[in-house]
Amino acid sequence: MNWITNYVRPRINSLFSRREVPENLWTKCPECGTMLFHRELSDNLNVCTNCDHHLAISPRGRFAALFDGGVFVEVKVPEPVADPLGFRDQKKYPDRMKAAQKSTAEKEAMLVAEGEIGRTPIVAAAQDFSFMGGSMGMYVGNAIIAAAERAVKLKRPLVLFSAAGGARMQEGILSLMQMPRTTVAVQMLKEARLPYIVVLTHPTTGGVTASYAMLGDIQISEPNALICFAGPRVIEQTIREKLPEGFQRAEYLLEHGMLDRVTHRKKLREELVSILRMLGGLPAPVAGDLPAPGTIAPPTAAGGEPEAQATTP
Predict the structure, then answer these.
(1) Amino acid 290: pLDDT
(2) What is the DSSP string of 49-74?
(3) Where is 111: in which H helix or E strand?
(4) Which of 143, 156, 168, 130 is nearest to 277 (CA)?
(5) Which residues are annotated as a binding site for Zn(2+)?
(6) How far is CA 86 from the centre of its chain?
(7) Which has more pLDDT, 293 or 84?
(8) Between β-strands 120-127 and 158-164, what pairing exists: parallel, antiparallel or unpaired?
(9) Residue 175 burial (CB < 10 Å; 0-12/13-18/19+)?
């Protein structure tokens, strides 16, 4: 061994060796297989730039694009009992919760917030499918009730984005009880004569579809979203027949009268603003994105000095 072997060769190898690339810089489109750069995908609201397939988007990412200036205030949700059944399969339920919280950086499968879209105050709730499949547990039930109560208190519409694999098996019957609980919450909005708009995203299935996800005054869906109670494979195995093309997809449901609109994610905000202002008897919305509430320059007095200091909530 000499200095060429010990020093020169490793030095040359380090200069020409392939650099490691972080795995989260690229995302493969599940529909067309195109590799999408993470910044380009994020700027396009997690919609494939090649085939227009709608990939999953987190509730925070959705709210950042939905609310004026990306500004919103979270609504507090009451905490349920952590592990009411002491459930355990391959892992303990608390361990699964900790893993989901670590991977998503969220407390639970639903986020509730309030803010303005197109200068229209609303309360919004969104499910996170990456958190245990967006499953409906006691926390999700509490979140919808908290959202409905906040909407009634502030006299604002409620916009809900659904994305779930159904009820949470680790909470058993307590999870199924969220179906009537959330139905009562929706009834609170109807009695207060407040709009309840549901945006169904891929996938919305099981007990979520059988309760609050299909009770909206207006039912909108993102393109090609799977919306059903039992999935197509289960139905095919049960009836032993081939299902129609596109069965249980958003476009099929729109054609058969179960949805009001199928709207591209990039046009969804504009459509929601138009619907909300129409239902509220408000003037036509201002075109384009708006700054966050409180960031507009305050009116000036006669002497040119601002009358009040604008603040951001």
Answers:
(1) 66
(2) TTT--B----HHHHHHHHSGGG--EE
(3) strand 110-117
(4) 156
(5) 29, 32, 48, 51
(6) 29
(7) 84
(8) parallel
(9) buried
pTM (2 decimals)? 0.84
Question: Binding site: residue ranges?
Answer: 29, 32, 48, 51
Strands 110-117 and 120-127, by their bridges, are: antiparallel
> What's the residue count for the chain?
313
Residue 255, number of CB atoms within 10 A of its CB: 12
Q: pLDDT tens digit string along 153-177?
A: 999 999 999 999 999 999 999 999 9
pLDDT in tens, 84-143: 999 998 999 999 999 999 999 999 999 999 999 999 999 999 999 999 999 999 999 999
**Average of pLDDT values for 228-232?**
91
Report the distance separating Cα 283 and Cα 140, nearest Å: 34
Domains of the chain: 22-55 (no CATH), 56-279 (3.90.226.10)
